[in-house]
Amino acid sequence: MIQDVYQSKEIANQYHADRLSSGFRRYKHWMECYYLKKYIDTLNEPILDVGCGTGRITEYLLELGFKPTATDDSAAMLDVFNKRLGKQKKIKTICTDITRLPFPDKKFATVITIRVIWHLPHQKIKKALHELSRVSSDSLVFDITNRQYSESLLGKILLGIFSLRGMPRNSIYSQESEVSDILKKHKFVLHSKSNLESIPHLWLNLWPTAQIPLSLFKTARLADKLFRFILPPQRQLLFYTRVK
Length: 244
Description:
Blueprint: H1 2-5, H2 9-19, H3 23-38, E1 47-50, H4 56-63, E2 69-72, H5 75-89, E3 93-95, E4 108-113, H6 122-134, E5 136-146, H7 147-151, H8 153-164, E6 173-174, H9 176-184, E7 188-195, H10 214-227, E8 235-242
Parallel strand pairs: 1-2, 1-4, 2-3, 4-5, 5-6
Antiparallel strand pairs: 5-8, 7-8
Helix pairs in contact: 2-5
C-alpha cells in the first residue's frame, strides 16, 4: 500500500525534491497554492495540516502568514519536515493516523489536507472525513481525484498510457456528491469547488525546473479549462464550511 512506502527513510529523504522535480509537478503545486490563496480570506486560525509530508503545503501556509499545526502518519516524513521547517519556524508536528486524530472536537478552525484522501483505501476515506470534520469548527479544504475523469473514455486512455509507462495508478477516485453526502451528516456543506489539472502537461518538463516562467503555468491552466469541454478534471480542490 502506498502509505507504507512513505514510512521509508530513503523515500522520505528524496520525497520533497521529487514533488517539485519537473515542470508538470511544479505546475500541480502552483495550482494548489493558487486556489489556497484565493481562499485566504475565509481561512481562520488555528489551522491543522493533515498529511503534511515533508512540509510542502505547510511551508506555503507559513508564507501566507499562518502558523499551522502539522500531522503525518510517517515518522520518517516528519523527521525531514522538522529538519527543513520545524525547528526554524517552531511548528508543532505530531505523528498520527488521519483516522485517529488526537485532538478534541472542534480544536481547529480550519483543517487542510492535500494529496492525502485519494491515497487512502475506500474503507478509510469515510473514517478520515469523519475525523477531519470532528476536529474542525469552521472549514475543511482537501482534494479528491475525480471519478468522472477515470470513467471517461479519454481519461481511461490517458490512465492506460501512464500505466504502460510504469507509472503507478494509486489514486482512489471519488465523486464530489459522495463526499458531500458524507460530510452533510457532520453539518458541513460545499462552499466552493476548484478544478485542478485535467491533462498531463508533460511539455512543461522541457524547461529547467528552476526557470519556468509563471506565464507557462497560466497557459497550462487555460489549456485545462479548454480541455474540460471533452475531459473532466482529474483532481478537484473542495472547500467545505460548517453549518452554524
